[in-house]
TrEMBL record:
Source organism of the structure: Folsomia candida
InterPro entries the record matches: Gramillin-biosynth_MTr (IPR053209), SET_dom (IPR001214), SET_dom_sf (IPR046341), TPR-like_helical_dom_sf (IPR011990)
Organism lineage string: Eukaryota, Metazoa, Ecdysozoa, Arthropoda, Hexapoda
Protein name: Translocation protein sec72
Domain SET as annotated: residue spans: 408-582
GO terms, molecular function: N-methyltransferase activity; protein methyltransferase activity; S-adenosylmethionine-dependent methyltransferase activity
Amino acid sequence: MGPKRMPGDVWVERKGKVVKVMRCPTEEESINYDTTRRNVISVMNRIHREVIDPQKYLEQARHRDHADLMLLAYPDNLSSYDENMEVELKMENCVSIETLVKNVGQILKGKFLLGRTITPSSKLVGVDAGVEDPEGKRAMRLGLFNYSVNAKMGKSDFEAVLPLGTMLIVKNPVFKKPCDGPASYGLIVDNPADVEILSPRRIESLFPGVQWKSDLPHESRMQLNSLLWEFSPDQSDLEIATKLKNVGNKAFVENRSTDAIRFYDVALEYLSDLEEQITPAVSTLLVDILSNKAAALIKLDCFNSALICTGKALGINNGHVKAIYRHAKALIGLGRYSEGGEFLDEKLTQFSSLGDDILRLRTILPELLKPPGKEIICALLNPRQKDSNLPQKDLPVGMVDRIAEFRGPIQLKKSKICKGEGLFATQDLEPGTVLLVCKPFAGLYVNPEEKKTFLDSTTPNEYLVGVMANKIWLDPQLGRDLYALFAGPELKTSTDNEDPKMRKVDIARIRQICSFNFTGSSCSKEENEKFISCGVWIPASKINHNCIDANVMYVHHDSSLVMMVITFRKVKKGEEILMSYVDAMQPLERRDFMKSHDFICKCRLCELDRSESPALIAKRDQLVKSLAYDPDTNLYPFHPLILGRDMVTIDKVEILRAASPDMNFAMTCSGIYTIAAVVLLDQRRYVECLSILEKVYAVIENVPTNFMHRAHAETILICCMRMGKKKAVLEKWTEELRKYCRLYAGTLEHVRLGDYPRIPEDLKKFGITFFTDTD
């Protein structure tokens, strides 16, 4: 890596016999380059032509000067909302590109830029296009982040994302570099609520007399076969609205619901003046657009806003089948199951034939009123294939619609272990009690085939921030639930539901909430898992952490993203529900990541770990590493002398925490387990085998089952059977194995996938039936 270049620096580069004198442009020179109309048009049109394969384009980009790309990276600092950012759309609040350039890096709060796209749009990181103001003298690159989060180059029609010639308003504009380093200047927008597409009709209404003093560039027009955002004078309002509806439908089919909603909204503007003298054609189109907008909102889980749309549609045509279906779906999404059933019953009485989808929806409603049944629990828990990095099997077709949000016997109260609130049991709970079933506020699943492509263009956190921001923009009531989550030590948790800020998009807070409440794995190219499955689940985020005394486990299904929280030990009434955010078997330095969260875990294990001297910790690590077991090959080079030496080592490891054997996590290492469960068991040294395994089990029974992928109880049970232990002992370990199977996989049949699939048959020899009537 070479020296950091400063504006104005001069240096020499040699390539073979060619010598070049290079100079780092000053800030003023960079700004002039990045706002010269000709440069913006040329660069953006080239990007649009070439970015069909983003990976290939980015590889080529490494050999280009950043100025040739005008590359806008994801912003380092996201904007925080305050009251001064409310914008009144009056011309005295309108600013020009010239004003933005004179105020580099400053958010012009309460102001807006009236702009028009003068190049086709594309997407490298954010959605990009060249934009001008009505004067047309200068232009700049517009970078929209958290906008059209599902748009993909080569797959999406970008004329249906941000069309050439689109007139728009950018509220609270800021012209800046999005990050430090060699990046271009641009109009950076990270809040989707700050962008508003305007139809020519609305432009005339808001800003009468405004004229664009330049034409759309011929070079840009040549990139496209036809212009979507061009309306001829002889087109009627009905024709324009129909055209925009079709563009919205295309976006919806391409899984770009936010784009669809923007186009539906513009289409509705053209029908607003026709509602007073409504004709059958206008009525049909209006209901279709409202119903389709509701479908897009439902896809984003914005059920409150969807209900408003379907209510308007049914007010015009109370028998519109799709509006009826989507109205019921919105009620169900809000957890108003009884109301949804009554609504459908009323419609089914009014109209004899509403279609199979509505009948099917009505039949599943009674199931949504009940706690999750065994079929659903087993499907959600269904483990991944053994020794595989592939995701779980998809849920059966239609099952996700039968899964309701569920909350068991718990309540929210002041926590006993942290400054905020926590969940508490309202009755005594047995192991295996389902406490929560919930879907993510924002979730992401990327299958193995698409993981690399996804990570080339964004990160899971950036994607989730975009989803959350768009949801609050489209359904402001959702902000009350999200903003109540912990957002880091520097931001006070929002709890006042009457505070207007709870209904506004605050990107900086959303980013913090995502960072501190994120659950998932495989979010980098280097991780072993071949897919991405992650999200933010609001109900589960209310549960506080404890490494060693957790009483619940949490699991989410990989592709459906449905999460369950289940007790894995007995919980007394009034006891706080606790989960372990990290694997307790990891060393303290890896568990202690929550210091940055303003939370220091003071559980028994962490306090014990902190009390130990560095010398003692080093001694234990050295003892574990001295075992002959090779963790890379999972092999143990058996020899009587080696085994004898390792048995002495195991005794030493045990002695180091003799006063707290249930927290001696060194005993759970793979080397000790392999020596006991494989070597000693095979040599029929059952007494020593059982002694070690029982000590291991005393530790791991404190660990939530979702962190364990090995049924320790089955090996102990095998050892006990071979020793001819009494029936009472065998029944004890049989029940422990049953408990593991139920918690880990939801079914006792999981025993067939273990190392000893014939355990049920072997137990019959001792008069014990493994499969019980209750299972």
